[in-house]
Design brief:
The chain has 337 residues and is of the alpha/beta class. The protein is built from eleven helices and 15 strands. Strands 3, 4, 5, 6, 7, 14 and 15 form a seven-stranded mixed beta sheet that branches. A six-stranded parallel beta sheet has the order 10-9-8-11-12-13, with helices on both faces. Strands 1-2 form a two-stranded antiparallel ribbon. Strand 9, helix 6 and strand 10 form a beta-alpha-beta unit.
Length: 337
């Protein structure tokens, strides 16, 4: 019986340990992927801490997966051995529930997320539903593709679903793992791009990523600065901080949109009066379907948008996770196999 290496967490808050796992053939409508790269993502710490219901221990983390199809299950017609594919937060949907039948695939009642509903990508091998697969375009390396499965599609899709047009003022709150991609995508889409982060030391990096303007939220009134620039049509909030999100509301222009992608359970301290007077909207945006991931990668390839990554071997997953968890990582850690 063949085996592969996978990183196991035995219990919530436990150690990340490299283990031998039995390699099984994929069931019907699934494929087995030989993993080449997997992003280390902020939400991984929530799985690690046991904050999601129904987790199966030992847990294998990772939902930004890129690799090649190694084995194909019965009923899979559109993918073949050797195809380069990515799997992100959207790890498969049923196509049968009412949300799916209405085209709301991200709200599928049976949607599967790698590491939550089946073992994730901190491993040499992953078995995933065929509906989860996104084709990786030639010219994008597997390590470059991995973060596009969640961080990339979340920011790209979050921006393109707003009403902002080329030339409009668009702000990105936070320039970490999500935000550094958000700034690049905003610039590539033709928006007048504002980066908002804490500390004057972040300005040079923000400008290098493509921001036209930088607001240091430690020293400036964020809303006043956005108003001075003409008022933002959109704020993409990637920082997981409710107070920081709310501080941008006053900087939105008429019918402006606050799009929240930074995950936090803290309530948003926003007055309905502020929303009503200017006709503002606050939207929560989930990542994107496998097709959205494909379109994200194609746009990234066309425009030069890339995650800034540090590659770490799978055997050093614990070190990469600690670097991400402690905030010491430079934008994105990617495990490579």
């Amino acid at each position: 019986m063949a085996t592969h290496k996978a990183v196991h967490v035995a219990q919530a808050g436990g150690a990340l340990v490299l283990a031998d796992v039995e390699t099984t053939s994929p069931p019907s409508d699934h494929v087995r992927i030989a993993v080449a790269a997997c992003g280390v993502y902020g939400t991984d710490r929530e799985f690690y801490a046991g904050h999601f219901p129904g987790l199966q221990w030992p847990l294998t983390l990772g939902h930004e997966i890129a690799g090649t199809v190694a084995e194909v299950g019965d009923g899979v017609e559109d993918f073949a051995i050797g195809d380069r594919v990515a799997v992100g937060w959207f790890g498969g949907n049923c196509n049968r529930c009412v949300p799916c039948r209405g085209g709301h695939f991200m709200q599928c009642e049976r949607m599967q997320v790698p590491s939550w509903h089946y073992p994730g990508g901190y491993a040499e091998s992953v078995t995933a539903p065929a509906t989860a697969l996104a084709r990786i375009p030639e010219g994008l390396s597997l390590a470059e593709a991995a973060p596009m499965g969640c961080a990339g599609v979340t920011t790209f899709n979050g921006l393109r679903k707003t009403r902002a047009k080329a030339g409009d003022l668009v702000a990105v709150l936070g320039i970490g793992g999500l935000g550094h991609l958000g700034v690049q995508f905003a610039r590539a889409m033709g928006f007048e791009t504002v980066a908002i982060a804490r500390g004057v030391q972040r300005e040079a990096a923000a400008k290098e990523l493509g921001a036209h303007h930088y607001i240091d939220s430690n020293t400036a009134d964020v809303a006043a600065e956005l108003k001075r620039l003409g008022g933002a049509v959109v704020v993409l909030a990637t920082a997981a901080a409710s107070k920081a999100m709310a501080a941008t509301i006053g900087g939105l222009g008429p019918e402006g949109e606050l799009v929240t992608v930074g995950v936090t359970p803290e309530p948003l301290p926003i007055s309905p009066l502020d929303l009503i007077n200017s006709g503002l909207s606050v939207t929560g945006h989930p990542s994107g379907t496998s097709r959205d991931v494909e379109e994200t990668m194609r746009f990234a390839l066309q425009t030069g948008v890339r995650a800034v990554i540090q590659e770490v071997p799978l055997a050093q997953a614990a070190d990469a996770f600690e670097a991400m968890d402690s905030g010491k990582a430079h934008y994105r850690m990617v495990l490579t196999v």
